[in-house]
Design brief:
With 343 residues, the chain is of the alpha+beta class. It has eleven helices and twelve strands. Helix 7 runs parallel beside helix 11, helix 8 packs parallel to helix 9 and helix 9 packs antiparallel against helix 11. The structure holds adenosine-5'-diphosphate.
Length: 343
């Protein structure tokens, strides 16, 4: 009997999740190392968190397994656990209960990562809804104004049609960018990479942006050795460079210059897009590649941005096993660099 007990204790101690045995007066009869770490000092004081006591009490009263979640701080950091409280003795009579001493088995499974992902998903859905709602509200207001009579107003009608057209374009940009992100996430590790010339890709990207740049009298200069090869998916790398040039055009004044330089460093290739634009204050650098993060919301919206351009650049870099960086000084321009494995 003693050997069996020892075996059980050894088994419980080795478990990867927290296990506690708690009696009817909420005293901890047994706990494994994980449970001790999770509940920190409280276990040593034999004092359980209130939320856990509530679940334990519920399990005793209902005489069946109770599930719930527990939020706790370990060394100041927040952790989440899925809790299951299972009554161990379901006595047929009060006498038996007295004799055996009712207790419950508490199991703690860590779900912090799941919780974080769930929060990110929730936040993302809220952001997308908000981003889509803004242009739709403008389109609806313009249509209603036209219906209310502006359709016969030769002076104002073109203005409302222009609003509808511009906001539909914005909706289209947001949805296309969301689809690009989702494709990158779904197919990221299956993207086909082949060795090719980066100079060619840079030139294609620059050509795509020429019309927009010319409208602002911005000159795009490129410098890339023809022999420089990168292991890449050319279409994706072109999209990333287009996003960077497009931003450089959007956030620069008329008559400035944009320079794209590609060079090899050890076994990587760096593609930098320099502009002489507004620049970005340092406090934003760490978050600039997040979805929907914008330094100046109004400026981004009026420039037709979806707020997703840089997160697409980051994802494209990642599917190549590379990274994207920013260097910028407010008022002095920015340099965005895409670092990819050399071919
Ligand atoms: P957006 O569609 O808003 O341009 P991005 O993800 O491409 O979204 O960029 C995020 C934010 O980073 C922009 O809103 C802008 O505030 C800032 N930003 C990006 N590129 C530049 C740049 N070259 N110069 C100044 N600010 C920039």
């Amino acid at each position: 009997m003693q050997k069996q007990l020892n075996d059980h204790e050894a088994l419980l101690k080795a478990m990867k999740h927290g296990v506690l045995l708690v009696n009817r007066t909420h005293q901890v009869v047994f706990f494994n190392q994980v449970a001790a770490a999770v509940l920190e000092l409280e276990v040593y004081k034999r004092k359980l968190p209130e939320r856990l006591v509530d679940l334990i009490e519920k399990a005793f009263i209902e005489k069946e397994t109770v599930e719930g979640e527990l939020e706790t701080r370990i060394s100041g950091e927040k952790f989440f656990f899925q809790v299951s409280v299972q009554p161990l003795h379901l006595p047929n009579s009060d006498k038996a209960k007295e004799k055996q001493g009712a207790s419950v088995l508490v199991e703690l499974h860590e779900i912090t990562r799941l919780h974080r992902l769930e929060n990110l998903r929730r936040e993302f859905v809220a952001n997308v809804s908000h981003e889509l709602k803004t242009p739709i509200t403008s389109i609806k207001a313009a249509v209603e104004t036209l219906q209310d009579g502006a359709v016969h107003d030769q002076v104002n009608m073109p203005r409302f049609l222009e609003i509808i057209s511009r906001q539909s374009d914005r909706l289209n940009t947001i949805i296309e960018d969301l689809l690009s992100l989702s494709r990158l996430e779904n197919e990221g590790n299956r993207v086909l990479l082949t060795t090719g010339s980066i100079a060619k890709v840079i030139q294609e990207a620059a050509n795509t942006c020429t019309i927009k740049a010319k409208q602002k009298n911005i000159e795009i200069l490129t410098k890339a050795p023809a022999s420089l090869n990168v292991k890449m998916n050319a279409a994706l790398v072109e999209q990333a460079i287009v996003n960077l040039i497009d931003n450089a055009v959007k956030y620069s004044e008329k008559g400035t210059k944009i320079q794209i330089i590609a060079q090899q460093t050890k076994n990587e290739v760096e593609i930098s897009v320099h502009d002489q634009g507004h620049g970005i204050a340092e406090e934003h650098h760490a978050r600039i590649f997040e979805r929907f993060y914008r330094v100046d919301k109004a400026r981004s919206r009026s420039a037709g941005g979806s707020g997703l351009g840089l997160s697409i650049v980051k994802h494209i870099a990642q599917v190549h096993g590379g990274r994207a960086l920013v260097q910028s000084v407010l008022g002095k321009g920015s340099t965005f660099t895409l670092i990819l494995p050399a071919g």
